[in-house]
Specification:
By secondary structure, this protein is of the alpha/beta class. It is globular and about 55 Å long. It has one domain: Rossmann fold (3-Layer(aba) Sandwich), CATH 3.40.50.720. It contains eight helices and seven strands; from the N terminus they run βαβαβαβαβαβαααβ. Helix 2 links the parallel strand 2 and strand 3. It has a seven-stranded parallel beta sheet, sandwiched between helices.
Length: about 260
């Protein structure tokens, strides 16, 4: 039976790597994210070429509940349901609390936290009917610990951890698991974009941001790769991981061991 995976924020970075990993297993894939039409076509074709499943793209804006509902309804109509839901969409803004723009707070909470509630809410009835489902929320080391200047992001990621646990308890007898992955710094476009922002905010060079800020807390002194995160998502979606639920798996080079 071909599985169907919906992955939010999957036109680049971690989400795209996860989409590619599931495509290689033969799953149907629903991609979602921003990008120019030609870029999205290229990504869709690229993912489709990796496996036997069907790959479609849905442009839902993760700040808009009605568009998220349409994303989930489209997946259900096209493929008969959603078996694997990966909530990966995320944005960041770096600023001290008193200067943090209210609209940025609202946007980050909407995309990094509330969107996961909306997708999970829509996915669960179908998963319960099948008696099988996997919900994988991409949280962050910032779901466990904080860093300065990231109030909205840290609050949202802590919220994702709580949402994950609650959902897991509610569906524990339905063959559905819900878990969070907590990566440390992964080299993605989102992180690369933060480097000059952090340099400006902190008044240091970009090289200092990488070594003294980003990788300072990661004892291995290495970025996590998107492929490493994708391999963990594959494992959590497998039958071998059926008894892993309501928890998180850290992949942070030792960051939260300190």
């Amino acid at each position: 039976m071909t599985k169907t995976a919906v992955i939010t924020g999957s036109t680049s970075g971690i989400g795209l790597a996860i989409a590619k990993a599931f495509a290689k297993t033969g799953a149907n894939i629903v991609l979602n994210g921003f990008g120019a039409p030609d870029e999205i076509r290229a990504v869709t074709d690229d993912v489709a070429g990796l496996g036997s499943g069907t790959v479609i793209y849905h442009p839902a804006d993760m700040t808009k509940p009605d568009e998220i509902a349409d994303l989930m309804a489209t997946a259900a109509a096209r493929f008969g349901g959603v078996d694997i839901l990966v909530n990966n969409a995320g944005v960041q803004h770096v600023e001290k609390v008193e200067d943090f723009p209210v609209e940025q707070w609202d946007r980050i909470i909407a995309i990094n936290l509330s969107s996961s509630f909306h997708t999970i809410r829509a996915a669960l009835p179908g998963m319960k009917k099948k008696g099988w489902g996997r919900i994988i929320n991409i949280a962050s080391a910032h779901g466990l610990v904080a860093s300065p200047f990231k109030s909205a992001y840290v609050a949202a990621k802590h919220g994702i951890m709580g949402l994950t646990k609650t959902v897991a308890l509610e569906v524990a007898e339905n063959g559905i698991t819900a878990n969070s992955i907590c990566p440390g710094y992964v080299l993605t476009p989102l992180v690369e974009k933060q480097i000059p922002d952090q340099a400006r905010t902190r008044g240091i060079t970009e090289a200092q941001v990488v070594n003294d800020v980003m990788l300072k807390g990661q004892p291995t002194k290495k970025f996590i790769t998107v492929e490493q995160v994708a391999s963990l998502a594959l494992y959590l979606a497998s039958d071998d991981a059926a008894q892993i639920t309501g928890t998180h798996v850290s992949m942070d080079g030792g960051w939260t061991a300190q």
